[in-house]
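Box 4.2: Ligand-aware structure prediction
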Amino acid sequence: MLEDVMSFETRDVNPLALAPGMKWTLLRKVIPFWLNRSLPMRAFSLRKKLKYAGEQLNALHFVINEAAGVAHFLPDYTSLVQLGTRGLRTRIEERLARGELPHDGKEYLEASLLVLDSVERFADRYRAEAERLGRDDLVRVLERVPRDPPQTLREALQLIWLFQLVIQIESVDQGISLGRMEQYLYPLYREQISRGEINDDEVRELFAAFCIKLSEVIPLFSRRATEYYAGLPSGQALTIGGVDAEGNDAANRLSFLLLDVMEGFKTRQPNWHARIADVSSPEFVRRVSQVISSGGGSPALYNDDVIMPAMVLRGNASEKVWNYATVGCVEPALSRESFTSSDAAIFNLAVAMEWLFGNGQPLAKDSRRERPWLREIHSLDELLDRLETQTSERIGQLKTSLDAIERAGAEYYPTPFSSLTIGGCIENAIDSTRGGAWFNATGIQAVGVADLANSLAVIDELVFKKGLYNLEEIANACATDFKNQELMLARARKITAFGNDDPRVDELANRVALLFDRCVSQHSNTRGGRWMPGYYSMTCHQGFGQRMAAMPSGRLAGRPLADGLAPVDGSDMLGPTASLNSVARLDHTRFGNGINLNIKFDAATVSGSEGCATLEALFRGYFAQGGMQVQINVLDPAVLEQAMRDPDSHRNLLVRISGYCAYFVDLTPAMQQELIDRTRQRAR
Amino acid sequence: MSFTAPIFDIQRFSLHDGPGIRSLVFLKGCPLHCSWCQNPESQNRAAVIAFYRDRCAEHFECEAACEEGAIQRDGFRIDQQKCTLCGSCVEACPSGALRLIGEQHTPDQLMEKLRADFPYFARSGGGVTFTGGEPTLYPSFIERVLDLCSTESIHTNIETAGLFSLERWKSILPKFDLIYFDLKLLDPEQHAHHLGPGFETVHANAIALSEIKLPIEFRMPVIPGITDTEDNIDAVARLLQQMGKPSIHLLAYHNMGEAKIDIIEGSQPRLGLARLSDERLAEVQNSFRERGIEVLGNDG
Ligand code: SF4
Ligand code: SF4
């Protein structure tokens, strides 16, 4: 943060205005205070601190998101709206009275009461201000909120927002997720409708206002951090749809009203997510498709029929997984009782190739031509073994740092307020940072699956099968960014990449993904939960890629890695069905912490009723084959303009031209321009 | 018994040649030679090595790989007399600048490739579209593929220019879920000039098919100055009325095909036409509507 203090207003990505005098306060007071008190500073000895800071400022191997705090959970708002703070207080007092407390248990529970007090007083001050402003409606709401269980939707939303806000102040504003709102608020909605107190338009308006509040949360990231997480994400996920406890379609009238809000009122937050099950009603799925085709990329879609088994595989109780919701970007977790630190770290899997080639040295700075350690590798299996050893070692380093951070978090920064809303903490009388939740886990994400798989396919073909080169020559070409190696580069790029429905390379991608699973899943966290793998990148594929040398796949130095679990940009040449088939070929039941697959269409392909039907067939076909998640983007003209300037990265961009689909880069410049103009007209 | 047919492309995720998500199977070979043909590489039945000049990096790996000495560096020519279509040059070319177009497939081989998209066909009501070239050149092959598709409940349709032996096709055509039949030029001389042989057959087939009540839809490519004359529109409209099928799809002309002409040693003269303007298309639609013909959409 220190680096950016002077330039918050003027930096080109995500500029932020500071209030007058704020800069001074930051420099004189806030930063000096936290300099020695931040989590990493508490976690490490001096020597390790320096090493850690060096590593994380220019992260190439992994970024530890948990260094800012855990956050990332689903507060139990179901209980909250039934209890209010009075009810929570009773729970705590009963627990205290019951006794048999663990070490520090009494102190923890008393701290909980203290923070409950504080939040009630916070609400009282808010009510006083509302009175001063003459906002009688708000004053009436705050007469019940937060102490008593809400009797109206408005009161419920006010209560949830209060908690949402305070949790994000106490912990960190990342991934505090709202869960299945349309499920736990449905009883209130139904009662109010039946009493004739509210109509659907008013419900939509309430939720729209709630979305504005959610969007007001802006995480303060430095410019460096923005390379890894561009777009100021706060990851407040809101899940709709899915199944109920009996396995039937759970979508209700409120789900449809929320879809209306999504469509008609596009805001930065929440992260809208829709669960789709085989039993989801055709009306629900159709409406979801319509909302997606209206643009904006919402909602992202989650496949119940894969996610629930994947969660059971990670130890979640099979009779509970029907009630999962998503956390943060894409991570499935049990509602009400899990604390999964699902975004603990993002790990660069692709860089394993570079470590192997450079024998531990960054390849770009390595001018050695002799690499005898590569001479012992004679087959793909041996190569994969070496990559696994490399990965496992770095995961071990990550584990050491993460453990230290977890311990420091539990020691110096417990989160008693957040813990009030996590099932298990009060009952166990243990804070969530120390393992109080009923279910604990840690999620580590891999970036670069496609890049590594493509590189393996190239090495297999050119080195092991055809013998055109040896591994040393490939490594040297990567070190020099393929200078004077145009022929090798062309050969590498001709080899079929992941994303073209070719079982050979898709199988390699699966092996790479499972390699990561093995390296990650052998570890546990300090809260008594297991590590599990996720496959998404936020924008770390850019941040990591910028710092990497070339790869055997033909990806040049500094270029971004593939986004999440998607094929490398521009490498899937056979259209979306082929690309989805490739992704679905991976074993998603192993991907317990979720995946992200981003796909893009131009507006004309997916608009109208036929376009919606196409979209629906695409994601249902992909889900039926075992795909876990997909986010569908409808393109804007700016992307088409980029594609015109940089065709190589956009070879897969499909567009509709007066009645048929074509690859944008295959069109003449004049035709491309025409298309851009048309898209612009439509966008207006 | 195995029949084969030369296929020069399978285009997946096509949305505009029949209902739903479809795979287009382009069969190579055509008895007509429309002057505006979108797929000039499809006219000849024989396989050919196509050369994409813009992708060539001039390393001449191909020349070294060719055992027949068929590749001439000078001006980059493939000597079709010498070439045995062995494919070595395609394999050797690092840039993907060479492609073997028109590989023979058995019905099973084709089905294997189509199968990948069955999950999407099933959920969108889509399926397989046979196009070309002129798919009716391969009745035995297509009949077998149709039978295989029908056991998997895959929707099928065909795009034909109508020049085929009705005798041979009478028993096969009812197996399609949809037939697109192109009406291009209804004046015998114009037909002969722009399309080549077969005017009487095309005309007779159109009438015969509408009489046996197959799920047939007629289409007309709107080629500026060639098919969109008042006389031709008039004749097409009259024929549709006479057949009791007063509706038509209009296919707007686009000139993307011309870029492909350099690829093979084609003899195709360049038309030099601009793509059909939206205004002109609207006028043609109106002309049809004035004559009582429903315009089914301008896809293509
Ligand atoms: S091998 Fe390919 S790139 Fe090289 S000269 Fe031949 S066609 Fe061109
Ligand atoms: S296909 Fe075979 S014979 Fe023909 S040009 Fe290529 S290498 Fe030579």
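In the box above, the bound molecule is iron/sulfur cluster. The longest strand of chain A covers residues 439-447.
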